[in-house]
Design brief:
By secondary structure, the chain is α/β, with parallel strands linked by helices. It has helices at about 5-15, 20-30, 35-45, 65-70, 75-85, 100-110, 125-130, 155-165, 190-200, and strands at about 20, 50, 55-60, 95, 120, 140, 165-170, 175, 180-185, 200-205, 220-225, 230, 250-255, 260.
């Protein structure tokens, strides 16, 4: 594990546990305490952590980051997830695609894989633009106000639109995942959108990169068990395997195009 990947996992563990000691982190990653201290120093300088006696704790953000900032965060992981999800979608499908940066990567992958004759219902302007270049697709969007600077529309019109369909697939991200498997969003409008999407499809696909595990957000937005398929980019962090239901298929795409299932 390189230092950048290890730092990502350190942040995920602190989101889950709240605070951890240097010795415990060193034991988990099987490296020296000096190596962990170097990682923590870089995370302190990035203003992601605060120091505690003998360890560190996470500085919990109060608001989600702007869309364009999130768009490049964990970019490679989101591309892999997008490619894996697109491979599940056959031509002539009806799909609901939610807001967020990972659903955008699903849309871009569908375009690259040259899916045809899709009916795409979305409140994500980037999704609509990515798939609107193919005139075999039908793109359906809600009315309402664009949530500037985010390229998305939330509210009752979006919820009503999603509920008016019975789609083959519903694809959505999430703000964070609690250690008990609860899904979290940053406001009630986001949570209501995800609820409407999940209620309106036959196969529910949850997409999230590793940084979402243990990430805090204030509004409950369902549970992992509400989905038939979970697609993420790495093995589940410690403890999350225990809340993964047997009824949910776990997909972990690899750079070589292979898939690990658990």
């Amino acid at each position: 594990m390189n230092h950048s990947t290890r730092q990502d996992h350190i942040v995920a563990m602190l989101r889950s546990h709240g605070a951890m000691s240097v010795d415990r982190l060193a034991g988990h990653f099987k490296v020296t305490p000096q190596t962990i201290r170097r990682d923590l120093n870089q995370l302190y300088e990035a203003n992601l952590l605060r120091r505690r006696h003998g360890g560190a704790e996470l500085i919990a953000p109060q608001l989600n980051q702007p869309y364009d900032t999130r768009r490049i965060s964990n970019f490679d992981a989101k591309v892999l997830i997008g490619q894996a999800v697109a491979s599940l979608i056959p031509d002539h499908s009806c799909i609901l695609l939610g807001f967020g940066t990972t659903p955008e990567q699903v849309a871009l992958a569908l375009a690259r894989q040259q899916r045809r004759h899709l009916t795409v219902v979305t409140n994500n302007l980037r999704v609509a633009l990515a798939l609107g270049q193919d005139d075999t697709h039908r793109i359906v969007m809600p009315g309402g106000e664009l949530r500037i600077p985010n390229p998305e529309i939330l509210g009752t019109e979006t919820e009503r639109l999603f509920r008016s369909f019975r789609a083959d697939f519903g694809i959505s991200g999430v703000g964070g995942v609690d250690p008990d498997g609860a899904l979290l969003d940053f406001d009630r409008a986001e949570a209501a959108c995800h609820e409407a999407l999940r209620e309106s499809c036959r196969t529910r696909i949850l997409i999230l990169d590793h940084s979402k595990f243990g990430r805090a957000a204030p509004v409950r937005s369902g549970h992992i068990r509400d989905h038939e398929i979970l697609v993420t980019d790495s093995a589940l962090p410690d403890g999350f395997e225990n809340v993964m239901p047997e009824t949910t298929r776990l997909m972990i795409p690899q750079a070589q195009g292979q898939e690990l299932s658990a």
